[in-house]
Amino acid sequence: MLPVQKESGTRERLLEAGAEAIAAKSFNACGLAEILAAAGVPKGSFYHYFASKEDFGIALIDRECAGYVEFLAPVLGDQTLSPLERLRSVFQKSRDDFATRGVGRHCLIPKLALETAQLSEPVHAAVKRAYEKWSALLAAVIRDGQTAGEIDRAHDADRLANMLVMLWEGATMRMQIDRSLQPVDDFLAFAFDALLKARS
């Protein structure tokens, strides 16, 4: 997922510092004192905005998800492009962001997704909710593509959207392991030249 736009204020400084610290390490390994020091915020101010570290984690996930939905909306709603072109544009823009900012960067939600077995149920639910929202947006465009004859109608749109998300997350994880854009390029080639291709 792409980075969200920064806002001013103490709460946003805490969220920004937390996102960077957790993405670099993990939710469980990142202590509150570390986040407070990075944000330059006293402990008392933290509890003014968040009831607990768990509440903070949920806010981080919701922030990341909202930022990505904000990024997706104009891309997926661009009526100058066909549905399949809009769908490809989402992943291509993310690929271009990796190329610009580096293949080693970590996204917060996938990072937390790997920790779901150790996370509390509310944080786990927030991660799941974020992925479901992403999949639902993709599924709507897939249905438009099926109506336009660009995407095979034999696919269930919701399952196909979930599969695209899973394949993409796997590709970005492998990208970080290999330190190469090749896995995401392979994803783009497979997804749009084979998986999504309409049967002739």
Strand and helix layout:
Blueprint (H helix, E strand, L loop, with lengths): L9 H15 L7 H8 L3 H7 L3 H24 L6 H19 L6 H6 L7 H27 L9 H22 L3 H14 L5
Please tell me about this protein's structure.
It contains nine helices and no strands. It has two domains: 7-50, Orthogonal Bundle (Arc Repressor Mutant, subunit A); 52-195, Tetracycline Repressor, domain 2. It has helices spanning 10-24, 32-39, 43-49, 53-76, 83-101, 108-113, 121-147, 157-178, 182-195. The longest helix is centred in the last third of the chain and has 27 residues, at 121-147. It is an all-alpha fold and 200 residues long. 71% of the residues lie in helices and 0% in strands. The two termini are 33 Å apart. Helix 1 crosses helix 4 (53-76). 28% of the residues are buried. Residues 2-7 have low confidence and may be disordered.
Outline of this structure?
This protein has 200 residues and is mostly helical.
Cα-atom Rg, whole angstroms? 18 Å
How many individual domains?
A: 2
How many E strands?
0
Low-confidence stretches: 2-7
Overall helicity: over 70%
* CATH class type of the largest domain: Mainly Alpha
What are the main properties of this structure?
single chain; 200 residues; mainly alpha; Arc Repressor Mutant, subunit A; Tetracycline Repressor, domain 2; 2 domains; disordered N terminus
